[in-house]
Amino acid sequence: MAPHRNDEADRGGRSKEDVHVSNSNEGHLLHRSLIDVPHFVKSASGIDLHLDNGETAIDACGGAAVAILGHGNEEVHTAIIKQLHQVSYVHTQAYTTSVAEELANVILKGNPYGLEKAFFVSSGSEAVDSAMKLARQYHYERNDCQRLHFVSRNQSYHGNTIGAMSLSGNVSRKIPYLGFGYPHVSHVNPPYAYRYQRPGETELEFTKRLLMELEEEFLRLGPQTIVAFIAETVIGATAGCVPPPSGYFRGVREICDKYGILLILDEIMCGTGRTGTYFAFEQEDVVPDIVTAAKGLGGGYAAIAGIYIHKKIIDQLRLGSNAFVHGHTYQAHPVSCAAALAVQRILRRDGLVERCKIMGELLGQKLRKELRDCKFIGDIRGRGLFWAIEFVKDRNEGTKEPFDPSIKFGYKVQEAAFQLGVAIYPGSGTIDGLKGDHILLAPPFTVTEDQLGRICQVVREAIEDQGRAY
Fold first, then answer.
1. 3 state SS of 415
2. If both were cysteines, with which of 63, 144, 390, 453 could 378 make a disulfide (CB 3.0 to 4.6 Å apart)?
3. Of 113, 117, 126, 132, which is closest to residue 230 (Cα–Cα)?
4. Which domains are assigned to the chain?
5. Beta strand residue intervals within 52-114, DSSP E
6. Where are the beta strands (DSSP E) in 27-160?
7. pLDDT digit string (tens) for 288-297?
8. The pTM is what?
């Protein structure tokens, strides 16, 4: 379904003549919106974004849970410049570099949880597509070629390339591309207790129901046709920082093993320390076959993502083709790897994952205290420095009724917070892709207690400011 257009004016209410005039003065960079002009950032330092109009905003969402060290880290800058002087690019079909090798060795030292190899690409979407292809090749190497199907979850987000988008359960981003994706994908309900757990249902009962639904979907499709089940360990931006119920991933692993189905955990947003452990799955009783990572891997200093691969998959390749039939021009890019290596060394040296856990507990406490009397708060949830606030019209009514989507309440809260000097990450369609609003907080791991206090205060003021109209 194409977006609605008025023949006489665009969505901003401008006439064709106005659009023509404004277009003549625009630059040639295509932004995400042809109407809303993004803010110009002149410089960034620590947790602050300095705008070209002289104002400063606290980056309380790390961009999109990316800037784990904050901005302007000189140690990372030095590593990038050093690498540029040594070698800026080689093609991985024939060459490798010490920084790429060392980055993989630092992350996977000692084969944690059986993860043996890393494969570095340029974006989270590329990482997910790479994981899809590797999972399929694993079965191919076993002469199990009838496996074509992937099972994912509603209210998930795995990326914007065709493959990753096909796995995603983010409805709004898929509307223009219906019928355009990978066809062998189905979705089950997410472990999203606030909206999907039934009244009177215990956490254990909720978990059992979700696992039963997953197994029934496997059986409906024919387990012998399924390549993998993919899930965000902690649901990210689409539903807003949703941790799974107790026992969920242990049960998922058991069902996947029962039918020879691989388990891919998407930690692009929630991994690399963001939820208080380096791998988000460390807080669950589960070991995945493939993990995707991005965002915090390079901390925003370079475009880099990766997949971490379990020994059982690598061993199968060794028994067969001895190759991964896949590659990218900018795979394991030396400058990106140098940036990520510097970020990962700082993360470990300065104990920032543990700090993220401690500061995350503090953030949760401050949010609940600051918002305890706000009637528009339905749920506050998160782990580490990865928190979301889901909105309702009036929590005192006990109905959990969301705002009408046309109001765009979450986006209005974001705008109000920005006017008060704090950048946050909004989300809509929280419940089912159409209804529901939330905001997400994911500040750098270097955030201070005073900065957390200011963030929470501004969030409350922004919510109350927008709520006055309702």
1. helix
2. 390
3. 132
4. 41-63+352-469 (3.90.1150.10), 74-350 (3.40.640.10)
5. 56-59
6. 41-45, 48-51, 56-59, 115-121, 149-153
7. 999 999 999 9
8. 0.94
